[in-house]
Amino acid sequence: MRRPVITARAAATFEPVGRSVATARAFVRDTLQGWGCADIVDDAVVLTSELVTNAVVHAGTAADVLCLRNDDGVRISVADRYPEREIPLQNAGQVVVHPDREGGRGLLLCGALASRWGVEYTAAQKHVWFQLDLPERPAGTRSAGPALPVDALPVTDARVRVAVIQIDRGGCISFWNEDAQDLFAYDPEQVIGKPLTDFAAWPHTPGTGTGIAEALQLSRWEGSYGIRGSDGRVVPVYASHLRVRDADGEASTVCLLVRDHERAILQSPQRTPAPDAATQAARSEGRISDPFEVFIGSPAPDDLDGLLQRTVERARDMLDGDAAYLLLATDDETELEVRASTGLPSARQRFARVPVEAGSGRYGSARMPAVHEDLTAVPGAVPLLSGTGMRSVVTVPLKVEGRLTGSLGVAAEGAGRYTNEEALRLQFAADRIALAVERARLTELEKLRRGSLSFLVEASDLLAGTLDRDQTLALMAQMTVPTLATWCAVYTVADQSSEPELSYVLHEDEDRIDGLKTLLMKVDAPEPVPTPGARVWTAPSDAAHDAALRTSMRSLGLGNSARPSTGPGATLATASAVGGETVVLPLVARNRVIGMLTLGKPTEEHFRQEILELAEDLSRRAALALDNARLYSERTAISQSLQRSLLPPELPVVPGVEVEVIYRAAGEGNEVGGDFYDLFPIRDGAYGFAIGDVCGTGPEAAAVTGLARHALRLLAREGFGGPAVLERLNAAILDEGARSRFLTLLYGELWPQDDGSALLKVVCAGHPLPLRLRQDGTVEPAAEPQPLLGVMDDLELYEQTVTLDPGDVLLCVTDGVTERREGTRMLGDDGLTDVLTTCTGLTAGAVAARVLRAVERFAAEPASDDMAILAMRVPEVPAG
């Protein structure tokens, strides 16, 4: 087997963090676009996203991404460093993983999108790779010339027979020549006077094509069908019909028929508009022979919009029309969507939808060719042309394998411009471009689908990356504008009894945001109904047009003489901004409507159905993200409120002693910390202080924290000494049973003295020891360690007396300070002592601030534990 030749290589490694997934997608996208492989970028990005997520999130290791370009396509490999973690493969007896589950979803996508894929295990890594083949691009040019070798000429019988059959106005055979007798083995007397339908095998499915009776009424018709011979077999024929009338004015149809393989004898040369210079030159050199290229021109546009625009322009020129338009059918073929036009007043009708069947008041059905000689005779017959000044129109269907895929129309300002002859010519052109248009449409839909999948992956990542409500609202709007809509408004609903509130407004033109917001504030919010899907909302457009009309009348001195609040220019600009289609999508999370996502287009523009479906998918994800942000905000508010309730509201002023407290809660505010402090008066001249740390976080730790702080105050004010206070607190903690938590606690009583010193009695129950800083810079522990609380029933604690002389500092901290880490290093008691040694002569506030700064600078990462710092200093006695 031939080994593919590698022509380019790119590799990168991504750390096991969530943001690496987005970085890996960007790496693959940039690499493939740089290689000119834009056709497969979306598939590659989606597959890489899933596989890197498996590596950095599920396997928890770094991901190595390797991109190789070869002569067949692109191979991308994603490796993680967890080879023991095997991934599920589809073997006999195993159940295929469900698409909605996280595990194995990347493999399902590989199987669906990749040309080839596989898994390789080594001793150190697991590799998942996939191959995406590049689409084939034809090389060279098509060539054909007027001179052909004999063996390439059309094949016929030795004697070419052309059956001539004449059909009268009633559809019966009135003439049958000798060649018809030879071809079908009927004598003239056997067929004359009988309907042609008795012999014709017409390939017709009702409602999807032209029937034989309709074909016989056209002025000219060509095509294939069959004639049943006398032996009952069907002879395939190619026919050319021509309507004629005799000298008496009697109409009939002359049918010329040959065997189908001899169709070149009758088939009419293609009628096309005069080619441009490039096309004429290519034709003269023999480079163009394809009927599609003859009509559309060479080179043909490679994108759907360009192809459709070229089609309507050529169709208009071919029939010398004043306007032309092309509509594509929706998936269910019940509606047609305007995709290209030329010569109409504006392109505002783009993506407008009209029904395929609209009853007798319209031009019958888009499934059939139709000619209107004068639209004024049947007002509203062609809704798309209402108010455009067009009077005559010819429309033909675009069909692929009998399915309606679109409709092509050419219109003129004069009446009676088009007949069946022009319908036939336009139908021939439509038949030649229908397949190319359908292929381009399907390609566009596939790209849109894959682009939508990539868009939703990116959107999900962004929405999952924040739990802030305001940021989530901003992301919702920024993801829709301008990708899906020109402007966006998000309404939120607090609860079922609340009215919707306008929470965020965004327009692609920042100058329009204020005017749009003002307009929406004056309009009643859309009703918050849980019905899925987008529904049209006309209130903004109606209100904007009314405001613009009133403003214009005031500026002309008509109506109310009061001056408008804004100038005509701003009001008209706002009306133009919201004058198109506006849709509302409900934001439903956990079976409750929590808001509405409103999307709008400027004047007379419409949304594509595919865009609305994508917006609906986005709204479901956005609703869940918004509700998660709401729940997180509520939880954070509750946690912060509970945390505040566990700390003293303010510190009392202690005469003769400086006191400073610094408290830092770790995390993002969603957990109640276990650290606490307190300073309170016990009685005249005596103050209690405490600093503690409850094991763990959350409600259980908060319960012990609240118990400890309030019990300390109550017992101290009842006259119990330090050991008695802590022993009773220990018993209360043990009484909590399974909810109890260990508690380290430093408790002391403080008495300022008349000589300027301060007397302290302290008990250190399992807590980091308090440190005393003397004026000479020496640091020593101010207490001895004793058992922590919440472990043993019988505690025998004792208190120690410490005297702080003027200039001395007592520093009390929680273990969040001493256990600050950087890799394998820890600040520890020695590090804290070194910091405190440098604080001689500083105030209590300065000491606490220096300790905090030293803790923060010790490591680059944010602190992972709560910390509390309590500094007390006896000021120096002024000299003299």
From TrEMBL:
<dbReference type="InterPro" id="IPR035965">
    <property type="entry name" value="PAS-like_dom_sf"/>
</dbReference>
<dbReference type="InterPro" id="IPR003594">
    <property type="entry name" value="HATPase_dom"/>
</dbReference>
<keyword id="KW-0378">Hydrolase</keyword>
<dbReference type="Pfam" id="PF00989">
    <property type="entry name" value="PAS"/>
</dbReference>
<dbReference type="InterPro" id="IPR029016">
    <property type="entry name" value="GAF-like_dom_sf"/>
</dbReference>
<dbReference type="Pfam" id="PF07228">
    <property type="entry name" value="SpoIIE"/>
</dbReference>
<protein>
    <submittedName>
        <fullName>SpoIIE family protein phosphatase</fullName>
    </submittedName>
</protein>
<dbReference type="InterPro" id="IPR001932">
    <property type="entry name" value="PPM-type_phosphatase-like_dom"/>
</dbReference>
<dbReference type="InterPro" id="IPR036890">
    <property type="entry name" value="HATPase_C_sf"/>
</dbReference>
<dbReference type="InterPro" id="IPR052016">
    <property type="entry name" value="Bact_Sigma-Reg"/>
</dbReference>
<dbReference type="InterPro" id="IPR036457">
    <property type="entry name" value="PPM-type-like_dom_sf"/>
</dbReference>
<dbReference type="InterPro" id="IPR013767">
    <property type="entry name" value="PAS_fold"/>
</dbReference>
<dbReference type="InterPro" id="IPR000014">
    <property type="entry name" value="PAS"/>
</dbReference>
<dbReference type="InterPro" id="IPR003018">
    <property type="entry name" value="GAF"/>
</dbReference>
<dbReference type="Pfam" id="PF13581">
    <property type="entry name" value="HATPase_c_2"/>
</dbReference>
<dbReference type="Pfam" id="PF01590">
    <property type="entry name" value="GAF"/>
</dbReference>
<feature type="domain" description="PAS">
    <location>
        <begin position="164"/>
        <end position="194"/>
    </location>
</feature>
<dbReference type="Pfam" id="PF13492">
    <property type="entry name" value="GAF_3"/>
</dbReference>
